[in-house]
Write a structure and sequence with these properties.
- There is one protein chain.
- By secondary structure, the protein is an all-alpha fold.
- It contains 4 helices and no strands.
- Helix 1 packs across helix 2 and helix 1 crosses helix 3.
Length: about 80
């Protein structure tokens, strides 16, 4: 599968903003937890980004509102991939 580097950079920018602003705080908690489990910075941001993409997909494709509850649930389940 081909990686869209521009899209990845945009997702990583959102993750960086969430970490910097501590909003939602679960993003930083998840980041710290995954790093402590042995994931490196890139892997951790990529895992968090997967949860973010689930939300963005529903917002953009199905015009659904952002679901913070599901986002946080998926963050807490990492490193299990978000399927919901």
């Amino acid at each position: 599968m081909e990686v869209n580097e521009e899209l990845r950079e945009q997702i990583f920018e959102i993750v960086n903003n969430q970490l910097t602003n501590d909003d939602p705080p679960e993003t930083k908690l998840t980041y710290d937890r995954l790093v402590n489990q042995g994931f490196d910075d890139f892997q951790t941001r990529q895992l968090i980004g997967q949860c973010l993409v689930v939300e963005l997909f529903d917002v953009l494709k199905y015009k659904k509102p952002y679901n913070n509850e599901r986002y946080v649930k998926n963050l807490k389940a990492l490193p299990k991939e978000p399927f919901e």
